[in-house]
């Protein structure tokens, strides 16, 4: 990780932030969003669970509050010169709408990989879009360059006192709408909303516990808390793209460190389950990052056995890519521990499948993939519906092992869930000196060609599977014929490629279903 020491600028104190939040002119463009009780989830957890509906904002996200608060307080000269921002989503729309309402030219630099629906939304709100680069960092670099060339004011997505104060108005509404709250759960990406709400709540009602929630694969707050100051993560996951931030802001971290009571991280599967919970209770369709805080609330309640508490969380955005819903649907049951995935070896003989199903009993089989084997044994990929969560899954594994079945639990195996379950049924006809790698593939023209030019012209590709779940990045699983003497050179080419990658050769799902041998 690249490390950066905290700023030495004189910081604002809690009273300063309270004053600025109370004076923030966000309601020139935003609404006081409703706080809705989630009846189904409240009954399930024996707590009152309430959802702050920031998806009801004109841009379907809370980001409008911070952008407008900062832009409304620019000098007349700054407004005349115009503003610029870099964003692939919610912040872009907030800046564009605020610019339109304030009569300020707003230029938004967006990566070329940004889905057309988001680009069109920014243009629809009056923003001037510049498409540049293949990721956020490249877009941000261009935005800063244009700001220097044209005198635009750069509007950051989270790390600015007035942006933080704008987001803090959510906290003011929460304590006004329910003065008896015990806990508030907030999403953390760059830290703007968590910092703003926490500093407000702790000034007015310090008895309320404020908890930050991060995605496991982009936990920049956790890394900063461990180090004592903001650090830059080497890479972040892109599923919850609204919080896919490598480095928390300096000012937002200072406030989070001082005012948050606790923080928690959650998996992508848990986020998917929270998206489903929101839909079932409200019929709203959240984007993954929008459901992040609810996923944290659920996990925190179970971890600390909370009962009869008043809990609030924020549905922070609903600008989801429709095609990502397929992935969410597939993973929600796993995130809720309502489904288990197993790799089981059974004898290649008449009645073997029946005998196996007898052990499962009355449990519903959600998925079953089988292919005839050539060594008197068959490896099957099985999904099982669970009513008793992890405890029931543990009982199934115990029963199968006691009956003599070799079995692996693949419920938390990312490669198995993303790729292998769609590839069951094929092993190579001959022994291969094969190594297996997973990649995060940027979704832009020429990405596959770049991959093949860097790796495919040097080593034979023996397996290839691609999965797109609606993000800016696709998921690729690829096998290569590589001798031990070539491994060092191959690794050098992987670094040259510049994509996120992981060696999956020892993965049990690969051993069960795709490799020539199971040794």
From TrEMBL:
- Listed pathway(s): Amino-acid biosynthesis; L-isoleucine biosynthesis; 2-oxobutanoate from L-threonine: step 1/1
Per its record, the protein catalyses: L-threonine = 2-oxobutanoate + NH4(+)
* Source species, domain of life: Bacteria
The answer to keyword Lyase applying to this record is yes
Task: Give every ACT-like domain span.
Answer: 340-412, 435-506
Q: Which GO terms describe its biological process?
A: isoleucine biosynthetic process; L-serine catabolic process; L-threonine catabolic process
Q: Identify a single GO molecular function assigned to this protein.
A: L-serine ammonia-lyase activity
The cofactor named in the record is: pyridoxal 5'-phosphate
Q: Which SUPFAM superfamilies match?
A: ACT-like, Tryptophan synthase beta subunit-like PLP-dependent enzymes
- EC numbers on record: 4.3.1.19
Q: Which InterPro entries match?
A: ACT-like_dom_sf, Ser/Thr_Dehydratase, Ser/Thr_deHydtase_PyrdxlP-BS, TD_ACT-like, TD_ACT-like_sf, Thr_deHydtase_biosynth, TrpB-like_PALP, TrpB-like_PALP_sf
Provide this UniProt record's keywords sorted from A to Z: Amino-acid biosynthesis, Branched-chain amino acid biosynthesis, Isoleucine biosynthesis, Lyase, Pyridoxal phosphate, Repeat
Q: What is this protein for, i.e. what is its function?
A: Catalyzes the anaerobic formation of alpha-ketobutyrate and ammonia from threonine in a two-step reaction. The first step involved a dehydration of threonine and a production of enamine intermediates (aminocrotonate), which tautomerizes to its imine form (iminobutyrate). Both intermediates are unstable and short-lived. The second step is the nonenzymatic hydrolysis of the enamine/imine intermediates to form 2-ketobutyrate and free ammonia. In the low water environment of the cell, the second step is accelerated by RidA.
Q: Which family does it belong to?
A: Belongs to the serine/threonine dehydratase family.
Record note on quaternary structure: Homotetramer.
What protein name applies here? Answer: L-threonine dehydratase
- Underlying gene: ilvA
